[in-house]
Amino acid sequence: MEYSESDMTPLQTEQVWKAMDRFRIELPSWGFADTGTRFGKFHQAAAAATIEEKFSDAAEVNRVTGVCPTLALHVLWDFGTAGDISALAKKTGIRAGSINPNLFQDQIYKFGSLGNPDPHVREAALAHIVDSIEIATDVGSRDISLWFADGSNYPGTQNIRHRKDWFEDGLRRSHAALKGDQRLLVEYKPFEPAFYHTDIADWGMALELARAAGPQAKVLVDTGHHYSSQNIEQIVAWLLDLKMLGGFHFNDRRYADDDLTLGSIDPYQVFRIFHEIAVYEWETGMTADIAYMVDQSHNLKPKIEAMIQTVTTAQELFAKAAIVDHERLATHQRNAALVDAENCLKDAFATDVRSAIAEWRMARGIPAEPLAAYRESGYQKRIEAERTGKGRGAVSSYA
Ligand code: LRH
Ligand code: MN
Question: Please, what's the b/e burial string for 173-182 (b: 16 or more CB within 10 A of its CB; e: otherwise)?
Answer without folding.
Answer: bbbebbeeeb
